[in-house]
Design brief:
globular; 10 helices; about 55% helix; binds flavin-adenine dinucleotide; 11 strands; two-stranded antiparallel ribbon; seven-stranded mixed β-sheet; about 375 residues
């Protein structure tokens, strides 16, 4: 029987090395899957899984040197895809640690900063967070009020950040702040007494993951010397959004597989619901969007490896794949009907997680406006 993974034979588009990364991520995902329902239910981020991901080379995976794997972009995407098939929380962890915090230091740090932070971040001994969003209007980070002022050789930072992944357990924070020369990135040691992070409680999405409110009260920061404005922060977001393009298709695949399994085993009106044309239409339409989403992800991966990927192209992928993954999870939840709203099936958990992904790293509206600006040359933000 055709499955969500085999309909168009996408596996045939992968190299052996890419398939090996995917298999490795699937094995790690299988370990996480043992507890993930319970972790989500009880809002637990299980730190003991971090070494598993680190040993598999999945932290800072696309970067070279500093103990990073130097893998190609499709392989990294496939790792995101397999982790998110288990739960978005773990793809988000890899995104925050690797694509945001490590990326900022890798791309904009001094040699000394890279030597100090990247190797322990690659091994997972040091956790990082990425502090861009503020309580007022996360969609417009250029209006940030967090400030940095010079103090001798260093800098002092003051301000507030919101929704910061991993902040309460992170050892190092990349903080974006306003200086007299514009927005710059800083590295902050979270042991500084002026750094305070409080977990945001009672989230209904990404429950197996941590997001925090952060207060910076006279915190010492080290400038990332190569950061040159908001564009540097946005470059990190582009890296993380690329992982999302693949990742959300993992959540879609998991939802589809659950719905097909259920449709063929559940009997209503004297036969399997899979024999009803309306149920087949839901499944077929979902499959079509899933396969298109995977093709788009693979295409963007190839562009990234060819160093041709633009932020606008990533916006197309993020907007389409998150939107379609939500539609797929929604349709699959309908196939599961009453049982679909229980935690017996992961579909509703995926659906809730995907709602958070729709918002972070740029909402649908923001990506629509990025694409609109690219098409018309007119900014409508
Ligand atoms: P707002 O900016 O207040 O937007 C509200 C609504 O207005 C949205 O629908 C938006 O699309 C719409 N809107 C805004 N501007 C326009 C416009 N010009 N035209 C049309 N519509 C518009 N941030 C970090 O820095 N680090 C993290 O690790 C991080 N992790 C996150 C994890 C989760 C689970 C979540 C939910 C958020 C995370 N964020 C993080 C923050 C995230 O990026 C922001 O939530 C996001 O950018 C949206 O900002 P906001 O929630 O303040 O919404």
């Amino acid at each position: 029987m055709i499955t969500a993974e085999t309909l168009l034979g996408l596996d045939g588009l992968l190299t052996d090395a890419q398939r090996a990364w995917q298999a490795k991520a699937r094995a790690v995902g299988a370990v996480i899957a043992r507890t993930v329902d319970d972790d989500a239910e009880r809002e637990i981020f299980r730190r003991e899984y971090v070494p598993l991901l680190a040993e598999a080379g999945m932290l800072g995976m696309p970067f070279t040197g500093y103990g990073c794997a130097g893998a190609d972009s499709v392989s990294y995407g496939l790792v995101c895809y397999e982790l998110e098939a288990v739960d978005t929380a773990w793809r988000t962890f890899v995104s925050v640690q690797g694509s945001l915090a490590m990326k900022a230091i890798y791309a904009f740090g001094s040699d000394e900063q890279k030597q100090r932070w990247l190797p322990p971040m690659a091994t997972g001994q040091t956790l990082g967070c990425f502090c861009l969003t503020e309580p007022e209007g996360g969609s417009d980070p250029g209006s940030m009020s967090t400030s940095a002022r010079r103090d001798g050789d260093g800098w002092i930072l003051d301000g507030r950040k919101r929704w910061i992944g991993l902040a309460s357990i992170a050892d190092v924070a990349v903080v974006w702040a306003r200086t007299p020369d514009g927005i710059r990135g800083f590295v902050v040691d979270t042991a500084d007494p002026g750094f305070a992070a409080t977990d945001i409680p009672a989230k209904l999405a990404l429950r197996a993951s941590i997001q925090c409110d952060v207060v910076l009260d006279g915190v010492r920061g080290e400038l990332l010397p190569e950061s040159t404005g908001l564009g540097s922060a946005l470059a990190c977001l582009t890296e993380a959004r690329f992982g999302i393009v693949f990742g959300v298709m993992g959540a879609a695949r998991a939802s589809l597989n659950a719905a097909v399994e259920r449709a063929t085993s559940r009997e209503v009106f004297g036969g399997p619901i899979a024999a009803k044309q309306l149920v087949q239409a839901r499944l077929a339409n979902s499959f079509v969007e899933y396969e298109k989403g995977m093709l788009l992800a693979l295409h963007l991966g190839h562009l990234k490896d060819a160093k041709k990927l633009t932020p606008e192209q990533v916006s197309v992928g993020k907007l389409n794949n998150v939107r379609e993954a939500i539609e797929i999870a929604h349709a699959c939840r309908e196939v599961l009907a009453g049982d679909g709203v229980t935690s017996e099936f992961a579909v509703m958990r995926h659906l809730a997680n995907l709602e958070a992904v729709r918002t972070y790293e740029g909402t649908d509206d923001i990506h629509t406006l990025v694409i609109g600006r690219a098409l018309t040359g007119i900014s409508a933000f």
